[in-house]
Amino acid sequence: MSEIDGTPLTGYRVAVTSARRSEELSALLRRRGATVASAAAITMVPLPDDEELRRYTEELIENPPDIVVATTGIGFRGWVAAADGWGLADELIETLSKARVVSRGPKATGALRAASLREEWSPESESSRDVLRYLLDKGVGGQRIAVQLHGATDEWDPFPEFLDELRNAGAQVVPIRVYRWHPVPPGGAFDALVTGIAEQQFDAVSFTSAPAVAATLMRARELGLEDQVITALRTNVHAMCVGPVTARPLVRLGVPTTAPERMRLGALARHITDELPALRSRVLTAAGHLVEIRGTCVLVDGVVKPLPPAAMAVMRALALRPGTVVSRGDLLAAMPGAGTDTHAVESAVLRLRTALGDKNIVATVVKRGYRLDVDFPVDPEVVG
Questions:
Q1: 16 beta partners
Q2: Distances (CA, A) of 335 to 83, 238, 330
Q3: Cα(361)–Cα(377) distance, rounded to whole angstroms?
Q4: pLDDT tens-digit series, residues 26-78
């Protein structure tokens, strides 16, 4: 058994932007070997203080809906809990019980049934698109539809096309925004995390809500780093999202995203564990050793070899062209903050050889530069 069999994320850096359950996700990733930086992108408006939610709840009781759409379990439960705190829970449940109820998935269904409400229909896919198709097929013209939404910010609204298509079909839509969010104040840990994404200090960034994505992009714009952050997310910092709704703001920008089949926190941690090594590693053989290049370390014959940043940058530059001579000037350009002195390259190569444990892995080509002494590539893909 190799040193990293139980920690497949050893050598990878992951940014966590979650506001809720961030400690749980971070622990799951660290348990698998990842280096994790966590900073919440958004902060929640306390439900008892949410005057908008209270106003819409009172208006809904006064003017009942024909159809109710529950999109999330925690959101629906939070709405009922808030109504209970305002002394409106019984009236709200009675109002909703007279409407046709559609649920987006099993968690929303469980919350409905806990409130003694019975759903008319729920898709197996947990897809808002399937919910929309069902409603449009049934006909919504002239219908008053209350849609319980989850995770809105003052600058961004979830499911915009969902609401617009219902309106375009003739429905009167009442959005019930539960758990509204604000971006966190500037100048703190989140700014440092966004800067780290822009500087490609992470191999992946995880998102568990679309508002967190929106807040990340907005903060990048405020910091003057929008182009760098988008470039990073399109190339070497992989966006790992809990589901397609979360990924939507990134997809619109042409940022590639991946997500687990099940929209669950544990599934996201497993997804990162399975996908990140495939996206951010290079495996080859050099000087008779099996060598794997990861985000912040190299594995030699399955043994972790931690490297300082300059040595890691040299290793990555050599691995981009395995077996080909890379000049000192090119290696210097790849090293962070190395300046113009090529002696820095020689020092980095010395540290690299020492860390790898076999100086023959990196060969010197006199007066030309350095190269990896590769035997044959195991994995032909070069990533980052």
A1: 38, 206
A2: 57, 22, 9
A3: 14
A4: 999 999 999 999 999 998 887 888 898 999 999 999 999 999 999 989 889 99
CA distances from 300 to 217, 292, 306 (A): 38, 7, 11
Contact, 300 vs 311, CB < 8 A? no
Helix (H) or strand (E) holding 306: strand 303-306
Report d(CA 59, CA 53) in Å as an integer: 10
Look up residue 25 and give its amino acid. Answer: L
Question: Looking at this protein, which amino acid is placed at residue 273?
Answer: T
155 C-beta neighbours (distance < 10 Å), count: 12
What spatial distance separates the first Cα and last Cα of the chain, rounded to whole Å?
A: 28
pTM: 0.70
Q: What is the pLDDT of residues 269-278, one digit of tens each?
A: 999 999 998 8
Helices 128-138, 160-168: axis angle to 10 degrees equals: 10
What is the SS3 assignment for 340? coil
Give the C-alpha separation, 30 to 33, whole Å.
5
Distance CA 66, CA 148 (A): 14
Q: Which residue has the tokens 């350009």?
A: 333
Closest CA to 358 of 305, 317, 322, 308: 305
By three-state DSSP, how is residue 66 classified? Answer: coil
d(CA 57, CA 75): 14
Q: Residue 200's closest CA among 152, 166, 150, 234?
A: 234
Contacts of 227 (CB under 8 A, 6+ apart): none
Name the DSSP class of 321.
Answer: S
**Cα–Cα distance measured from residue 261 to residue 258, given in angstroms and rounded to the nearest whole number:** 10
Q: What is the pLDDT of residues 246-300, one digit of tens each?
A: 898 899 899 999 999 888 889 999 999 999 988 888 889 999 999 999 888 899 9
Q: Which domains does the chain have, with CATH numbers?
A: 13-43+184-279 (3.40.50.10090), 47-179 (3.40.50.10090), 282-377 (1.10.10.10)
Strand partners, 207: 241
d(CA 277, CA 290): 16
CB-CB neighbours of 320 under 10 Å: 17
Biggest CA pair distance of the chain: 84
